[in-house]
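User: I'm writing a tutorial on reading structure tokens. Could you give me a worked example: one chain, its sequence, then its tokens, then a sentence or two explaining what the tokens reveal?
Assistant: Sure. Here is the example chain.
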Amino acid sequence: MDTLTDPVPLPAKPAGPPTTDSAAARGVDVELLTEEVKQSSAFLDDVFAQVGKVVVGQRDMVERIMIGLLTGGHCLIEGVPGLAKTLTVKTLSQTINATFQRIQFTPDLLPADITGTIIYNMHTGQFTQKRGPLFANLVLADEINRAPAKVQSALLEAMQERQVTIGDTTHRLPDPFLVLATQNPIEQEGTFPLPEAQLDRFMLLIKVTYPTAAEERSMLDLLTTLDVPSATEVATIEKVKAARRVVSQIYIDDRVRDYIVHIVQATRRPRDYGLAELAPLIEYGGSPRATLSLAVAARAHAFIHHRAYVTPDDIKAISLDVMRHRVSVTYEAEAEEVSSEDVIRRVFEYLPVP
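And here are its predicted structure tokens:
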């Protein structure tokens, strides 16, 4: 029986580096790749250190934004106001000398306000094109759910195609191009919730939580002085592009690949995986984008930790961010106060680690 359709997972084994034979079968020299990863990922420690000078705590959010930057995957950041979401994105752009634009989404926003438009020049008697704020490396779409559907669709086209059409001319967006959208989970009046199809285009849904008491005390000591801390440039866009090429070469063992597919399949066919109790709770399972995003994000997570291969721990570390917005629960689950995160955790608890 094919391993990808077999509902019985492989026996659990401790996670560790890939075997030389399995890597050689794919034409991968793990030792050589490890050295390359250590060299090309060294700048990340400096980036995290510079961001840490300005943003206290929130390491998980910073890492996941960096995962998006290293893979080209857009991120949706959800959290209450005041958790340094905007500050983190702006500070990160300063450390890598990237262009940054912030767009405040409002109900009266028009698509041309973000993509650009054609303006008539009275002095020359000609029409000229004015580019919108989307033409930047890092675009912060603040409170994306406050904009109407047409604006969200215009943003979605830019995210998917990496291009914008103004009049009859199509313009390529900068490389890298990353959309970091935020939404407030508390206030829902006057908002336009993102449909599932649009949510699926975001590689990660990052949930930002309150800082600990110790972090908040450090924040109080740091930000109530006259000398406001700032980040300095420690990397370049070219370094990020070079790192992207190395990330795409990170080795994923066949057993780990099967593990990724089993995880997503279990959210679609829970009965086949011995999780019959989840069947009435899941309306829609993860899409194929979930499978691809798990693999890509796991590679970037391994790269951030200076490893040339993906372990099941990498997949577990980013699984909620990749899957929480791609698994829809039923009304029965909502009545029982079961969230998509609860479903995903149950899948990981049941499926043995390869």
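What the tokens reveal: Residues 1-15 have pLDDT under 50 and may be disordered. Residues 288-304 form the longest helix (17 residues).
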